[in-house]
Amino acid sequence: MPLISTSTQRTYRYVRLGIIGAVLALAVAVGQVIATRGPLQSISASFYTPARGVFVGALFAVSLALVALSGHSVERALLDLAALFAPVIAIVPTPVVTGDAPGVVVRCATPCVPAGELPGVANGMLALMAVGAAGVITALVLGIRQGTLTRAATTVLVLAAVVVAAFSIWSLVAPAALARYGHLIATIGFFAAIAFSSVAAAFAATGRWRVVYGVLAAALVLDLVWLAVQRAVFAGETIAIALFAVFWIAQTVQKWNEVDPGIRADVPR
């Protein structure tokens, strides 16, 4: 007997599956580089390898999918914020030193972004600033016209505007500092948003789903702390991405049969 589903439901299902596919593509691309060229200091260092296209493409795909799944709940609001950080991770490469990425020539005493990559960072951040600003304005106009601009939605828009403005000012006023620390800040912001989204999902869920999301949130927080303290970048990133994948698979399974995911909150404005 064929399954009956709405167009909206199918779209949400495909977008959710697309995120899983993006993570899988990244895992395969990075795995191939490690198998043929040796270990990397971090997954982010794959930017400087043949896996660069997949690395950048996967992050943009994840960002677009998270925005497409936008909604009124706290959980989805946090995913919106994660979507803002993902393109920055792709555009601003991680600083490296000799040996971090096979074939990369680095001429600096401390970890840095190679000079040849800086024009691309400037170009990418300019494009991202324009899209980010346009996105915030568009979301505001649509929220007002559609009557979906709730208190929670307004808070998300304000936070999104702050993030966009902060990175925009940073890239214009201190591009060297952005190149040095932008990737790290964006990575922390992305995974922190995912961790807090897991916490929100745990509070909203019942039964086994509450346990699943609670464990994932705790594991993500512990992994981020461990990564910061021990500087075990490759292991820390790998665990964080794996936990993100598990979180998203759990989300996909839990929400698979949602008939018509809505964006209008059931609370007064």
The global form is globular
The total beta strand count reads 0
What is the radius of gyration? Answer: 19 Å
The main sheet comes to: none
What share of residues are in beta strands? under 5%
**Can you write the helix and strand succession as a string?**
HHHHHHHH
Q: What is the share of helical residues? A: over 70%
From the helix content, strand content and strand pairing, which structural class follows? mainly alpha
Give the helix tally.
8
Ranges where pLDDT stays below 50 over 5 or more residues in a row are: 263-269
Mean pLDDT: 85
Separation of the first and last Cα atoms: 43 Å
Tell me about this structure.
72% of the residues lie in helices and 0% in strands. With 269 residues, it is mainly α. It has a domain at 7-102 and 176-254. The model is unreliable at 263-269 (pLDDT under 50).
Keywords:
disordered C terminus, mainly alpha, 0% strand
Topology:
Elements: H1 7-37, H2 52-68, H3 74-91, H4 118-146, H5 151-173, H6 175-204, H7 207-230, H8 233-254
Helix pairs in contact: 1-2, 1-8, 2-3, 3-4, 3-5, 3-6, 4-5, 5-6, 6-7, 7-8
Summarize the structure.
This protein has 269 residues and is mostly helical. It has 8 helices and no strands.
